Amino acid sequence: MSLTFFFRVLIFLTVAAAATQATWQYSPALLQYLVEARNSTMQLARFDSRSLVYRMDMDRPISFTYSNPVNLTKVIVQPSVREDLRGLEEGFVYGLRIRLFDSDGTLIKERDKYVFSRSPNEVFASGDVWRFFRDRSEVVAGQDEFLIESDPQAAMIEFSIIEAQPGIVGVELRVYEHRPFQESQSRSTFNRRSDAERRALAQANAFPPELLTDGEIANLTRNMWRPVGPNGIEGRDYLALVLYEGTRLPGLEEGQ
Amino acid sequence: MTRRAKVILHLLAAGFGAGVAALAFAPLGKAVRADGGDSESFAAARVMFRQALTDAPDPDAAARLGLHIRQSDGEWDGVVLSEEDSDCAGRGAYLIRQGTSLPLAITAPHRGSDLHSGTIAATLFAETGAAAAAWNSAPRNARDACGAAIDLARQDKHHFTAFSLAFAEAFPAGRVVQLHGFDGNKRNSEAARNAEIIVSDGTGEPGDKLLDLADCLSRRFAPRPVLVYPIDTGELGALGNAQAQVLREEARFDGFVHLEMSSRFRAELVQDTALRARLGQCLVESVQ
Predict the structure, then answer these.
(1) Which contiguous run of DSSP H or E holds residue B19?
(2) Is the ipTM of this structure higher than 0.90?
């Protein structure tokens, strides 16, 4: 049985009307989906911060001289490992020898510290932050942060690698000296910071920055650090690298 | 005299005094504004600069735009396009190297007000072999020596913008570097206050080219803080920069670099050849 021309036109118009209705109804949602997909792609690629880190020479120490003698030093350290070992379940172990000197160059403290570092894949799977170098093939394993106290005050700190598990390509450091703290200036120190920085400092507090008491502000400003650069010449005594950090967002697959 | 009359008399005297003061001390905002250009002059300048960058400058075309052409002083091979010294119309000064050169334009739109930025641009032009350089010829704010004032970074029809666009068209893989200066004490955030360099490509999403340059600067100047907008700081992003917008929108050029330097760092760069060489090396590497 064949349809007449009239019925063919009728069917065509019916289908066209249904398509128009569907387009009218669903196109805003479709457009919204496309916009969100585009935004999410951008967000996945968003970088949160850049930091300068100093890769140690495997055979020679690296030293940092403080701007003023200090009692407290903060160290952030990480190994970078071969890309093919990024999933190594047992992680990576390395050892550092840390030596502190006074302003006369006299050794005042020495300790060896062994650090266990989780594999890059484990860090990625379990954390919210992933770290990477834009221009290098090695991947960054678990990062550690520790404080080193010194009494009497130290004028210089020195690090050397005493052990590094095979597969570790380099060990990178960041060293911070504790800023001298004056309680009478804590509020002015706090107020000199931008709104974003004040909010970041106060984020662990139940109250917003403008409602903090002098005591609470003093506690926040007590814990301020200044980065210290290494002694020597870049390329000869150490390698300066730029470490990127990005926030891990939903939808980002492991290995990306 | 009644009390009301006294009040009126005082008001009249105050008004007269204010009027005299306004006439005697014209505010800088009312100072003579240098010509920012129009669409017609912009198009003509774009063609003229394009020809000068790829072939040889046309003296007649340059003259119609108020620019005089002269040969370089001999330390480098090329031409200088500028207005007459006595003119001070704010048309800008442009150096174009002839022969083999790096696809790099080093510019300083606020020479004078951003102290040392012009000197650094001129020195880097000479030391790196960059293809071109440019800077303002009238101050950002009016002065005794030059009543005209213009902020080139806000002028989208100015010769300076036409020059930047012509450069981007002549060297699509090149870099247009704009040198600026900032005062750390006037910055809001601790990060910006302590920074030596803040780079931006004039967008909220820095591209790979800018990050490559920033990484080079970070490594070469370690441990001096080199920040990238908006990753490391929310300040000095150059989002309203006229050249950045025109290059992006009209030439789809992604090689614009807005390079802000602290006053201390600028002073050091002028004095220290080795330090300046490090900056030059990063700029050179960015176009190789």
Answers:
(1) helix B3-24
(2) no
